[in-house]
Amino acid sequence: MHEMSLCEGILQVLETESVKQGFSRVKKVWLEIGDLSGVEVEAMLFSFDAVTRDSLANGATLNIINIPGTAWCMKCSKNVTVKQRFDECPDCGSYQLQVTSGDEMKIKELEVE
Ligand SMILES: [Zn+2]
Questions:
Q1: What's the 59 CA to ligand 1 centre distance in angstroms?
Q2: Residue ranges making up the domain that contains 86
Q3: Calpha distance 16→75 (Å, rounded)
């Protein structure tokens, strides 16, 4: 499962940060997930629990912040909202879109002790 390796990546970041910032436990993680990232929130929550077991983030809560997808339409010369990566422009129907946000996943905030 794709989400499992994403969660392993997050755990690595948490471990690195714990050394840098000197905390020993992670209680809450806020994670931004873009609508266009293809990440399944349900699978993410499940994987996070599995991956963080017996780690510094054991029992930590994962909060998902949804980031809407936006793309630049070449024809309209403006940003439009898209729900899926290969959607057409909602205004003019063009497929000449360049995704500008919503395809990323990143850790927004941590609550640690
Ligand atoms: Zn357009």
A1: 45
A2: 2-112
A3: 44
